Amino acid sequence: MFSNLFREQSDERATMVLNPVISKLSGKLVVLASASPRRLEILRNAGLRFEVVPSWFKETLDKGLYTAPHEYAVETAKQKALEVARRMPIKHLKTPDIVIGADTIVSVDGMILEKPVDKHDAYRMLSSLSGKEHSVFTGVAIVLCHEKENEEVDYQLIDFYEETKVKFADLSEDMLWEYINSGEPMDKAGGYGIQALGGMLVEYVHGDFLNVVGFPLNHFCKQLDLIYNRCTSSSDQESASARLSKSSPHPTSVLTQLPHNLTDQSSQSPSSSAKHNSSASLRPNSPPASQTHHTHGSPSFSPVHKAKKEDGDSEVSESSRMLVNSFSKDRGAEIIGSDNTALPLIPSRGQVIELNVAREDSEPKREDLQRIMELMDGFKASKALFTASKLCVFDLLHRSPGLDSAQMAQEIKASVKGTECLLEACVSLGLLKSKDRKCQKPVYENTDLAVRFLRSDASYSLHGYIQHCNNTVWPLFSHLESAVLEGSHQHEKAFGKKTNDLFQDTYYNNQEIKLRFMRAMHSIAKVTGKDVATAFDLSTFKTACDLGGCTGAMAYEFTEAHPGLTVTVFDLPAVVEMIEHFRPQHKDNRVSFVAGDFFQDELPKADLYILARILHDWSDEKVHSLLSKIAQTCTPGCGLLLSEIFLDEDRKGPCRGLLQALSMSVGKQRSAAEYTLLLKSHGFITAHVRHTDNLLDAMLCIRV
Ligand SMILES: C[S@@+](CC[C@H](N)C(=O)[O-])C[C@H]1O[C@@H](n2cnc3c(N)ncnc32)[C@H](O)[C@@H]1O
Question: Which residues form the O-methyltransferase C-terminal domain (predicted)?
Answer without folding.
Answer: 477-684
